[in-house]
């Protein structure tokens, strides 16, 4: 995302200060539209396809999925060592298919996935692949 910094703009003879942040991108930016600190599931395997309706996850813990089939891009835009695990069972159970660490995104087949779990540390809820 490109940001424009404007120091002052003259409007109708008066001076109005407008600030818009730094001109360079920071680590607090979205990735493919996924807000910093969230995990996002996209409409298909292309991150430019847009985030699914309801496909932004913020809270640690399990999140059940429904009607997710085929390949989708999954972006982990969390920070501080946070991960997202893709689980075959509901409520963060079953066999773990993938673990995506903070700052990464991958194309994943969500057909066998019934939930995702967000967390930190090394206490993954589903069994490793």
What is the 3D shape? globular
What's the CATH topology name? Gamma-B Crystallin, domain 1
The strand line-up of the biggest sheet is 4-3-6-9
Please state the second-level CATH architecture.
Sandwich
Number of domains: 1
Average pLDDT confidence is 80
Let me know the number of strands.
10
Largest beta-sheet characterization = 4 strands, antiparallel
Order of secondary-structure elements = EEEEEEEEEE
Q: Which percent band covers the strand fraction?
A: 35-45%
Any idea what the radius of gyration is?
Answer: 19 Å
Counting H and I runs of at least 4 residues, what is the number of helices?
A: 0
Report a brief summary of the structure.
With 129 residues, the chain is an all-beta fold. Helices cover 0% and strands 38% of the residues. The protein has no helices and 10 strands.
Overview of this protein structure:
The protein is globular. A 4-stranded antiparallel β-sheet has the order 4-3-6-9, with no helix packed on it. Strands 5-10-7-8 form a 4-stranded antiparallel β-sheet, with no helix packed on it. Strands 1-2 form a two-stranded antiparallel sheet. Strand 3 (39-42) and strand 4 (51-57) form a beta hairpin. The chain has 129 residues and is mostly beta strands. The chain has one domain (28-119): Sandwich (Gamma-B Crystallin, domain 1), CATH 2.60.20.10. The relative contact order is 0.19. The chain has no helices and 10 strands.
